[in-house]
Amino acid sequence: MEEEKRALQAMPPWSLRISNVVGFAVLISVNGLVQSGWLGPRNSEISEKFSTPLTPAGWAFGIWGLIFALQGAGAVYSAFPDGYGGDGSKQRIVNAIGYGWQVGWYLESAWQIFFMMETPGAMWICLLLLLLALAAFGWTLSRLYRLKELQGPLSSGLLYLLYFMPTSLNTAWLSVASGLGALVVPASYGLRDHLDACAVALAITVTMAGLVIVHKYRDSAYGLTLMWAFVAVYGNQRSPSVRITALVCLAVSFMVSLLTVLRRKHHVQAGERSDMRQPLNQVTDRV
């Protein structure tokens, strides 16, 4: 554990800091070209063509704008020397993320290219890319959870906003997108007979897995992302079974997320009471 702490406290290498900026630039460039229609049909047009019972309303995809904005700011901030040193929080969180963001970005960029091909074979590749991107961001998020376990809560709201929050949002949204991608594959073959039942099963699976994360790590951002997704699914679908499932998943996500916030508040208040009872702890620890 001590070796792990020392590795996280080291100054992040320039290769990591610069490649973060380069990787994000590639992501935004590919996204811009695809969404502008210069390379072919836009993602929104293809999504309509291969609509599934788990496809959310179009406005929900605006979450990518928030994710990309926060990650871009985080990538740029990691490259600048400001904030390194001090209590070591910045270097620890940049080291914890490592190359995980970059791997996820390149996989997301590749997904956009293959999605434009609109063939069943390409949709299989897209599903694989989504699952790999989910694994990359999930691994990165687990590293951040581990950092929190080793070092305690982040001392800076800025670091949470630029690193922890976008990683959580991206991971949660990719979990939903992976479920959607699994339904696009049969839809690309014109097989739609049992998609509603599959959508219900996938929605429940994504929700249960996500809420374990929300409850265990007190990650309310993850829970809010699931709520965002299921509000959009509920509003965009007409199948009673899918709408009921989306509503139940939304309600359960809300309750667990609310419980997480209350648990965190109780934890902070308990810590404050402990500090008031033992005001000399910091001094005696150093003596």
UniProtKB/TrEMBL annotation:
Keywords: Membrane, Transmembrane, Transmembrane helix. The chain crosses the membrane at residues 21-39, 59-80, 92-115, 121-142, 154-174, 194-214, 221-237, 243-262. This is Tryptophan-rich sensory protein. It comes from Symbiochloris irregularis. The lineage of its organism: Eukaryota, Viridiplantae, Chlorophyta, core chlorophytes, Trebouxiophyceae.
